[in-house]
Specification:
Largest sheet: 3 strands, antiparallel
CATH superfamily: Winged helix-like DNA-binding domain superfamily/Winged helix DNA-binding domain
Number of domains: 1
Radius of gyration: 21 Å
CATH class: Mainly Alpha
Strand content: 5-15%
Structural class: mainly alpha
Number of strands: 3
Helix content: 55-70%
């Protein structure tokens, strides 16, 4: 059976949407794919809001390097700013970034030894005693 032109246009529209979704996901992951930007996102996920000076101290980097990373994160829509007088505060603008940062933290930053029980294992042990 030969596909109808309508079937082809639906498949084409689905393909186009899938390509757009893939492009957006790749851009998102590229924004996360830099140590400095990932550290900024992690610190925002933990602290809520931070100023550029806070980032400079935290990252031990010059203002120009921090500004460049913050600009990229703003461009990607991952952070937003709020100005109060002369003070600018940054915060996460995207829940996807928070979720990914939390997952990355769990996978790479928890620093638990392989023999140390997980929280779920500890809870199960407590419940059984």
């Amino acid at each position: 059976m030969t596909p109808s032109p309508t079937d082809n246009s639906c498949q084409e529209a689905e393909f186009d949407q899938m390509m757009e979704d893939a492009r957006q996901a790749a851009d998102f992951l590229k924004a996360l794919g830099h140590e400095g930007r990932l550290m900024i996102l992690c610190s925002l996920a933990q602290n809520g809001e931070m100023s550029p000076t806070d980032f400079e101290k935290f990252l031990r980097q010059r203002q120009s390097a921090v500004s460049q990373q913050l600009a990229r994160l703003r461009l990607e829509g991952l952070v937003e700013t709020e100005r109060n007088g002369k003070t600018i505060k940054y915060r996460l603008a995207d829940d996807r970034a928070r979720e990914v940062v939390e997952l990355v933290y769990q996978l790479f930053c928890s620093h638990k030894s392989p023999t140390e029980p997980t929280e779920a294992e500890s809870d199960a042990e407590k419940a059984s005693t």
